[in-house]
């Protein structure tokens, strides 16, 4: 006796990819939100070396002082008197970040002190000066 199969279409067994794609997109959003973006200063400086230099964990705002005394923030040249306003604007974006001054080793100390004064007037007390480690 022969059995007759009905004309039903057999469904192919497959893996549903929708839950995996949801997890991938959620992880992508998580990593984008938790990433700390560093604002680069805009120029390369020849940093002085120090044997006591150490790495700062959070240095989100970079201010560069060039050899000629020019001040750079956010990849553009600014006046020393405009440092305070720019720091306040960047601190509004990332209030927990520290400020790192990247001063050229041949930069005038007076310009670096003026920049530090402007940063302190913006309400930032955690200021670091970038250096390369000798040891």
TrEMBL record:
PANTHER family referenced in this protein's UniProt entry, alphabetically: BIOPOLYMER TRANSPORT PROTEIN EXBD2, EXBD MEMBRANE COMPONENT OF PMF-DRIVEN MACROMOLECULE IMPORT SYSTEM
Key words of the record: Cell membrane, Membrane, Protein transport, Transmembrane, Transmembrane helix, Transport
Name the record gives this protein: Biopolymer transporter ExbD
Family from the record: Belongs to the ExbD/TolR family.
Transmembrane segments: 20-38
UniProt membrane topology term: Single-pass membrane protein; Single-pass type II membrane protein
Species classification: Bacteria, Pseudomonadati, Pseudomonadota, Gammaproteobacteria, Vibrionales
Localization per Swiss-Prot or TrEMBL: Cell membrane
Main subcellular location of this protein, as a coarse class: membrane
Keyword Iron: no
């Amino acid at each position: 006796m022969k059995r007759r199969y009905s004309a039903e279409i057999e469904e192919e067994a497959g893996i549903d990819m929708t839950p995996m794609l949801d997890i991938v997109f959620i992880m992508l959003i998580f990593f984008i939100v938790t990433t700390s973006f560093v604002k680069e200063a805009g120029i390369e400086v020849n940093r002085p070396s120090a044997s006591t230099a150490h790495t700062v964990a959070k240095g989100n705002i970079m201010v560069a002082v060039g050899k000629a005394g020019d001040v750079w923030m956010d990849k553009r040249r600014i006046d020393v008197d405009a440092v305070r306003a720019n720091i306040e604007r960047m601190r509004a974006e990332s209030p927990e970040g520290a400020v790192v001054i990247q001063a050229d080793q041949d930069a005038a100390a007076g310009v670096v002190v003026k920049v530090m004064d402007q940063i302190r007037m913006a309400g930032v007390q955690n200021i670091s000066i970038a250096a390369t480690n000798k040891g």
